[in-house]
Amino acid sequence: MNWILAILLSFSLLSNDYVNINTADEKALQTLPGIGPVRALNIIEYRTLFGPFMEIFELEYVSGISSGTITMLEDLVFIDTGLVPAANTLHWIEKVDSLSPALIVSYLDVGQGDAILLEAVGGKTLLFDGGPDAGGPLEPPVVFRLRELNVDTIDILSFSHPHADHVGGLASVMRNFTVLEVLDPGMPYSSWIYEDFLNSVMDAGCGYRFLETGMTLQLSPLVTVCVVSVGSEETDLNLNENSALLRITCGDFSTLLTGDMEEKSERTLTPFAQPVTVLKVPHHGSLTSVFPPYLRKLSPQIAVFSAGRNNRFGHPHPRVIEIYRELGSEILRTDTQGTIVVQTDGEVFSISTQMAGIQ
Question: pTM for the complete prediction?
Answer without folding.
Answer: 0.90
